[in-house]
Design a protein that fits this description.
The protein folds into two domains: 30-122, Immunoglobulin-like (Sandwich), CATH 2.60.40; 143-358, Rossmann fold. Helices cover 35% and strands 30% of the residues. It has eleven helices and 14 strands. The protein has helices at residues 39-43, 150-153, 158-170, 187-191, 194-202, 216-219, 221-237, 256-270, 278-288, 303-318, 335-360; strands at 5-21, 28-37, 50-57, 60-65, 67-69, 72-80, 83-92, 98-108, 117-126, 143-148, 176-181, 207-210, 241-245, 274-276.
Length: 361
């Protein structure tokens, strides 16, 4: 019996764009000015102490903390080239706990003013869930499809690096991996995209890996579970197994790890699905080494972060350690970091596997 109480609150605001000229007279750049009213949120009891915003496009990203005065948060991104950008906005309390998250997309056009509507979601789920799970996975998956977003396709694609690891390990070309990924996509977006459904149904995959948008497991777990379940039905009806890609906390908010991991473990257990606890491996590496696993935006993976994720999926596919693999992403990972990441991936995988087994014995 599941008892759930849902508290939902949202703020919609505008991002106003103003034109500014760069030092190069031939290049017109834009400034994005953020103006976020917080009065309604404060009146609803949310003690917002800090708001951060990140804008990114492909390899470019920039993050700022907004100035909060008189219940209004303001800030600016300066000298942006005309293009379409994704924007993420997060609200925190005085103890740096995440209170709300929103995202959107804005197109910067030289000489024009544009608007971007973003909704900040304050979402809390509480309740008791009793789950009975029976694990029944094959000894080996030889073809894998990743369903996700930029966390999956960063650094030439997680599927590419997993495939290279597996082919080295097997000394053959039998293993194949591919991906269906779009920037900022949720599992809801994928379920409603015919291209994703066609890829699942036509590929004859052994395993389909689902990666949710990075904040949705925390801010709207209900929708994550709803569309993970819908996609699982499509996957299993096609004779394929479902797996999950547990993502990681923001670099500046490692406390997210607990909520993220709980959400992924719950949905994997409820659907009798495989799980690669990449987020837990990120937490361990971040806390215990000097390896830079984050890109400059503190969200997306660096090449080392993608390599760590590939090691976690190698563990999941083979149930063996990646230690000793030569593959180093074509020289992107030095020998010392490679060995550390391989060892820590195996340690985290074993610990998580044992914990889940104990939970269901």
């Amino acid at each position: 019996m599941k008892k759930i109480r849902i508290i939902f609150y949202a703020i919609t605001f505008l991002l106003f764009l103003s034109c500014a000229k760069s030092n190069n007279p031939e290049l017109l750049t834009e400034n994005i000015s953020l103006n976020i009213p917080l009065k309604n949120a404060y009146q609803a009891g949310y003690d917002i102490d800090r708001i951060s915003a990140t804008i990114f496009k492909d390899a470019f990203s920039e993050s700022i903390n907004l100035l909060i005065e008189d219940s209004i948060a303001t800030g600016s991104f300066l000298n942006l080239e005309p293009d379409t950008y994704e924007i993420e906005v997060s609200a925190f309390d005085a103890e740096n706990n995440l209170l709300a998250f929103g995202e959107g997309e804005v197109t910067v056009i030289a000489g024009q003013t544009a608007e971007c509507h973003i909704t900040l979601h304050f979402d809390e789920l509480t309740g008791d869930v009793n789950i009975i799970v029976h694990f029944d996975f094959p000894d080996r998956w030889d073809s894998v499809l990743f369903i996700g977003n930029s966390y999956t396709y960063a650094n030439s694609g997680l599927d590419t690096h997993l495939e290279n690891m597996m082919r080295e390990y097997e000394n053959s070309d039998n293993f194949t991996a591919s991906r269906v990924t779009y920037g900022g996509y949720t599992l809801e977006d994928h379920f409603n995209n015919p291209n994703t459904i066609e890829a699942i149904e036509s590929g004859n995959w052994d395993l389909v890996i689902l990666q949710e948008q990075s904040m949705r497991p925390i801010m709207n777990k209900r929708l994550m579970f709803k569309y993970a379940t819908k996609l699982d039905s499509v996957i299993t009806e096609n004779g394929e197994d479902t797996g999950f890609f547990m993502t990681w906390a923001r670099e500046y908010n490692q406390a997210m790890t607990e909520s993220l991991s709980q959400a992924y473990i719950e949905i994997a257990d409820s659907l009798n699905a495989a799980l690669a606890p990449v987020g837990l491996a990120f937490s361990e590496v971040y806390a215990n080494t000097n390896i830079n696993i984050y890109s400059n935006d503190g969200s997306h993976p660096s090449p080392q972060g993608t390599y760590l994720a590939a090691c976690m999926f190698f563990c999941l596919i083979t149930d063996n350690s990646p230690e000793g693999l030569i593959y180093d992403m074509n020289g992107s990972i030095d020998e010392t970091e490679k060995n550390q990441l391989q060892t820590m991936a195996w340690d985290v995988y074993q610990e998580n596997k044992e914990a889940r087994a104990l939970l269901h014995n």
